[in-house]
Design goal:
289 residues; 17 strands; Nitrilase/N-carbamoyl-D-aminoacid amidohydrolase; alpha/beta; globular
């Protein structure tokens, strides 16, 4: 494994036209090559368009159309000679998934992850995925996540057990509330620092940005951030020395967690509602009155 891995994220205005999307992604691959980026991340459903951001129903995309644009994208990645991760729509039998695919420098699909926690507006449009995945790139271990999933700390816990070097998060998170961008950025910084991990994000530019396209280091610093107004690439470097330090921190956390499971004192919480809730290894006893 090399001492460093340069990664980038490319933001552009997504659409319901896969050919238009592919043209923008080719520009992203070309810019990544010029900047010596080894892996480039594209937004959620960047290849096919996202429902409901770009169109109403992802099931309107036929399997043949999805297969054709995926094949074309793989050829473009092969020509660029780098790695790429993109959001896309996946059809499996009667199921429609919101997915991320990893494509290698040889143009082959090397990994696939289906979004497991769907946002309210996606329910009925996509099916929730099952199972986790780890993307392996030149010996680096990268954990894929999609949009709304960044809000759930438990989906970042596999960083500890699987020793992930970075998390890749593809967004199509746009709207009318400008304040949401600052909130999402703060959550991402917290995810990076609490797990001591690099985070790379890419967001759709089809509307006001509610999440950034950015590179965040394991201390939670936003090292680089793309414009929220125009198409472009943001990049950063994952360093093995920092990843090894993170691994030591992770081992320390694992020892602490094992100790908790062996004998954690109960925490009593006053509440007007009786009952008992269990969270992880900590038993929360809720008292009446």
């Amino acid at each position: 494994m090399r001492d460093e891995l340069k990664v980038g994220a490319y933001a552009f205005v997504g659409s319901a036209d896969p050919d238009r999307n592919l043209a923008a992604m080719v520009r992203g691959l070309q810019q990544a090559v010029r900047n010596n980026v080894r892996l480039v991340l594209f937004p959620e459903c960047a290849l096919t368009g996202h429902a409901p951001t770009d169109f109403a129903d992802p099931r309107q995309l036929g399997e043949a159309r999805i297969a054709a644009v995926t094949k074309a994208f793989c050829r473009c990645v092969r020509d660029a000679g780098c790695w790429a991760v993109t959001g896309t729509t996946t059809r499996v039998a009667s199921h429609t998934f919101n997915s991320l695919i990893l494509v290698g420098p040889d143009g082959r699909v090397r990994g696939r992850y289906h979004k497991r926690i769907l946002f309210a507006t996606e329910a009925g449009r996509y099916d929730p995925g099952t199972g986790d995945r780890l993307f392996l790139v030149d010996g680096w271990r990268l954990l894929p996540r999609i949009c709304y999933e960044f809000r759930f700390p438990e989906l970042f816990r596999p960083i500890l057990s699987r020793h992930a070097d970075a998390v890749l998060i593809a967004f199509s998170m746009v709207g009318r509330d400008a304040a949401k961008l600052a909130v999402a950025t703060a959550i991402l910084q917290a995810r990076a620092s609490e797990n001591s991990v690099y985070i790379l994000t890419a967001n759709n530019l089809h509307g006001m940005q509610n999440a950034p396209t950015a590179f965040i280091d394991p201390d939670g610093h936003v090292v680089a951030r793309a414009s929220s107004q125009r198409e472009g690439l943001v990049s950063g470097v994952i360093k093995r020395a920092r990843s090894e330090l993170s691994s030591q921190i992770i081992k320390s956390v694992q020892r602490y967690m094992r100790g908790r499971r062996q004998g954690e004192p109960r925490i009593r919480i006053r509440s007007s509602r009786p009952g008992t809730a269990t969270s992880g290894s900590v038993k929360l006893t809720v008292c009446k009155g």
